Amino acid sequence: VFPLLTTKSVFWKGVVEELLWFISGSTNSQDLSKKGVKIWDANSSREYLDAYGFKDREEGDLGPVYGFQWRHSGAEYTNMHADYTGK
């Protein structure tokens, strides 16, 4: 049971998928999007990345977000395809 107190309907599948995604250390929003969880899509769109100066990032690359920081604290981020094992 997940400790969430609310009177509103909750998209449980999305909550679980996002948590598992964080735990995996992924920074690719497309991993979530393929599972129907679209919450990070806007923050990794080409338009958003270009507007904030991330022109070199591939669409879907969120940069060093929560899961990356949890799994690889202190590691230098390069891109969503890099292998950060042991870093």
UniProtKB/TrEMBL annotation:
Protein name in the entry: Thymidylate synthase
One of the protein's GO biological processes: dTTP biosynthetic process
Keyword terms: Methyltransferase, Transferase
Record pathway: Pyrimidine metabolism; dTTP biosynthesis
Domain Thymidylate synthase/dCMP hydroxymethylase span(s) in chain numbering: 2-76
GO terms under cellular component: cytosol; mitochondrion
Listed GO MF terms: thymidylate synthase activity
UniProt feature coiled coil, ranges: none
Endpoints of the signal sequence: none
Domain of life: Eukaryota
